[in-house]
Each structure stands twice: as structure tokens, then as C-alpha cells.
């Protein structure tokens, strides 16, 4: 379970980015994090990856207060979380296989396991035949699929996505969001930040709306 308890985030000399956030997302649940640009969506996701620290309040993941994680334990925690970015963040001088394998290599996974897991992840996103191609030869939607494969190759418990369809046309956006819903159906906890009103209506998922740093959520998530 993900649980925010009166979480506030601010930076020195700046306004509060998040104010008294209260949220419970159950294990295996899926929700959309909505709101305009600058509402705090990216910051909320960064708190979940420990790229940023909570200023006040408590953030629990799987019963663990993230503020209590010692620095040496943060890499192990991050291996439980997959992250997909809008701009892919792919290494353009490495082929598709190498981009996806990097996460496992950093974690010290044996080479034989890396190959089987990378191939399986790419099959899941429909790119099993594109292993040796460079990202520059792929379409925007295919590059996003590589980013998703990289995020799921280590079978994370939690999958976070920050505006993953912002640069894609409606048909490709549908395909990408449907992939996230499929991972959710297989037991992964999924939180997707988006301001795409069409996707919000189409998916019919709980919408957690951020506005000026404050969260407006359905009763079951508050």
C-alpha cells in the first residue's frame, strides 16, 4: 500500500509545492494523478522514488516510512519501483536491448538472467523483434514502449508514470495506457500522472486531482 499522511513538500525560499496530502492507494490498485502543469504531480512521484524527501508528514510504502530508509537501502527500495518518463530518457547510442538491460546490470543480475528477462519485457510491450535497433530508428510510441520495458524488466511492485503519453497521438496514447492497465491486472500497483482529459474519461479509473499543491480525491482514496 502507498499512504501519504499529511504530506507537505516545500523548497527553501519557495512556495509549498504539495500541501497536506492524504492518500491511500491499495496494493495492486491503479489510479490517475491529474491536474494542470505545475500542480505538483511530478513532485509527488519524486517523493515516491526518494528522489525528493518529504518536508512534513509521513509517506509509507508497504508499511515502511520512506524517511527512515538509510541511504544505503535506497537503491534496493528503488528496485521495487518502476518509473516511466514522458521523454523516455533512453541512451541514444545504445540499442534497445542495452537500454532495457542496463537496469538489471546495475543491480548485478547474472548475464543469462538478464537476457531472458529483457526479451520477456520487450515481448510484453510488442518489441520482441527490435532488440538490436537504435532508439533513433523507432517512432515516438516505440521509444516510449522501450522506456516501459526498462521500467518493468525488474518486475517492480509499483509502476509510476509521469505524463507518459504527452507527446503521442490519441491512438498511441490508448495503446500505452492500456499497457499500464494490463500490468495493473497482473497485480502491479500503478499510478499514472496525466492531464489528458480524454484518457481520464476513457479509462474510467479513480482520478486523484492536484490543484495548487492540494489533492482532491475520491472517498476511497482519502
Question: Which features does this protein show?
Answer:
222 residues, six-stranded mixed β-sheet, four-stranded antiparallel β-sheet, 7 helices, 10 strands
Order of strands, main sheet, comes to: 6-7-8-3-9-10
How do the helices and strands follow one another from N- to C-terminus? EEEHEEHEHHHEHEHEE
**What's the mean pLDDT score?**
92
* Beta strand %: 15-25%
Extract low-pLDDT stretches. Answer: none
Task: Report the helical percentage.
Answer: 25-40%
The N- and C-terminal alpha carbons lie at a distance of: 13 Å
Report on the biggest sheet.
6 strands, mixed
Tell me, briefly, the overall form: globular
Secondary structure category:
alpha/beta
- Rg measurement, Å: 17 Å
Looking at how many chains there are and whether they match, the oligomeric state comes to single chain
What's the helix count? Answer: 7
Keywords: ATP-binding, Cell cycle, Cell division, Cell membrane, Membrane, Nucleotide-binding
Organism: Acidithiobacillus caldus (strain SM-1)
InterPro entries: AAA+_ATPase (IPR003593), ABC_transporter-like_ATP-bd (IPR003439), ABC_transporter-like_CS (IPR017871), ABC_transpr_LolD-like (IPR015854), Cell_div_FtsE (IPR005286), P-loop_NTPase (IPR027417)
Subcellular location: Cell inner membrane; Cell membrane
Amino acid at each position: 500500500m502507498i499512504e501519504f499522511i499529511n504530506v507537505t513538500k516545500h523548497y527553501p525560499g519557495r512556495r509549498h509545492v504539495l500541501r497536506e496530502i492524504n492518500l491511500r492507494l491499495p496494493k495492486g490498485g491503479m489510479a490517475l494523478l491529474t491536474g494542470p502543469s505545475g500542480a505538483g504531480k511530478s513532485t509527488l512521484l519524486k517523493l515516491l522514488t526518494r528522489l525528493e524527501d518529504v518536508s512534513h508528514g509521513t509517506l509509507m510504502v508497504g508499511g515502511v516510512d520512506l524517511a527512515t530508509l538509510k541511504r544505503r537501502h535506497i537503491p534496493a527500495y528503488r528496485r521495487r519501483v518502476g518509473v516511466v518518463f514522458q521523454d523516455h530518457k533512453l541512451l541514444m547510442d545504445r540499442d534497445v536491448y542495452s537500454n532495457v538491460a542496463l537496469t538489471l546490470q546495475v543491480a548485478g543480475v547474472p548475464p543469462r538472467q538478464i537476457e531472458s528477462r529483457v526479451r520477456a519485457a520487450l515481448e510484453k510491450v510488442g518489441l520482441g523483434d527490435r532488440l538490436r535497433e537504435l532508439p533513433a530508428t523507432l517512432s515516438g510510441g516505440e521509444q516510449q514502449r522501450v522506456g516501459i520495458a526498462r521500467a518493468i524488466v525488474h518486475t517492480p511492485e509499483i509502476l509510476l508514470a509521469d505524463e507518459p503519453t504527452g507527446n503521442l497521438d490519441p491512438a498511441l496514447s490508448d495503446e500505452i495506457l492500456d499497457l499500464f492497465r494490463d500490468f495493473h491486472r497482473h497485480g502491479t500497483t500503478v499510478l499514472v500522472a496525466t492531464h489528458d482529459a480524454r484518457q481520464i474519461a476513457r479509462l474510467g479509473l479513480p482520478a486523484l486531482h492536484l490543484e495548487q499543491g492540494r489533492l482532491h480525491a475520491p472517498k476511497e482514496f482519502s
